[in-house]
Write the structure tokens for this entry.
Amino acid sequence: MDSSDDIEDVSLFDADDDVSRRSKKSKIRHPVASFFHLFFRVSAIVVYLLCELLTNSFIACMVTIILLLSCDFWAVKNVTGRLMVGLRWWNQVDDDGRSHWVFEARKVPAQGGKSSSEAESRIFWLGLITCPMIWVIFAFSALFSFRVKWLAVVVMGVVLQGANLYGYIRCKVGSRKNLTSMATSYLGKQFLRQTVATEDQAAS
């Protein structure tokens, strides 16, 4: 099936316009969402580290970890991303059978204020970025220590949490074309700055 990427800038909540007028610098507006944003993914890591000390049943550990990872994937993709940072992504299939990846971002208020709490934003991105990196470390550890039976569980952690990380980065920075243009623009600015600095040194 053909696939295409759609980037839309839409309002996700009807009440956002009223809420965005309040002060949001340090207040956690959604404590339950913030808690569960970290709870499932941190619990999966803790169970992975301690499961061999708590039980000898590999199946029980594997099922528990996969359930926690699945709950985390659903909660982060469908709930915490929208509430904490105003981002959302999903896949939809049109009438022609073509798959479309949709990445949405909450509209910035017209007054120029911030659309989400800084504290919640830090919690969201810290958990979203740190935990997949930990699972990547676990993957290398399981591979080099020949713990083959754990490799499938670790790969599941990398895939599920990495998918959310990729989706929200796409929501944040835009489409792949935007990523390329940002990288090109950054390299161009660095080259121009270096060239100007070299010419100034030569002139002096």
User: Anything to note?
Assistant: Residues 1 and 96 are 10 Å apart (CA to CA). The mean pLDDT is 79. Residues 58-85 form the longest helix (28 residues).
